[in-house]
Design a protein that fits this description.
By secondary structure, this protein is an all-alpha fold. The protein has helices at residues 6-24, 30-35, 42-61, 71-76, 78-89, 111-124, 127-132. The longest helix is centred in the middle third of the chain and has 20 residues, at 42-61. It is globular and about 50 Å long. It starts with 5 loop residues before the first helix and ends with a helix.
Amino acid sequence: KWNNTASGFQAFCRERDEYHRKHEAPYLPQALVNASEGVPCKTDFVRYIQWHNHAFTMTENLNKPVHILHYVDYRDDYNGTILKLLSFLELPFAADGDDFQWRDYADYFTPEQRNATKYFIKKFAYPEFLHEL
C-alpha cells in the first residue's frame, strides 16, 4: 500500500495518526497527547519509548547482564559488532551472512517532525534510555 520512500512513509504515518486520533488518543493522558503534536507515527514512537523504558527497568530490577547495540555500530564495525554480540551470547560464529546495508532515514522526516520527535522522546524516555540515544 505504501512504497518505501519518504512520501510513502509520510502517507503511512498520516493514516496511522488519524487512527490514533480517533481510537487511541481519547484514552491516553492529555500530557502525552499534547507532547506528541507534530510527531509522525505517534503510536509507534510511544511503543518505542515504552519498550526501551521497560527493557532498562527489567534488566536493572532482575540484575541481568546487558549488551547494548546501536544501529551505527553495524555501519562502523559490522564484523566486530557481530563478534562482540556472539561473545556476549556465548555462541560460535556459524557462517557469513548477507552484507549489511546501511540506510539513514533522516530524509523521511521534516526538520519540524525531527524536533517534535526529539522533544517527545526526551519528555517520556527514562534517563538510562536517553543516555543510549
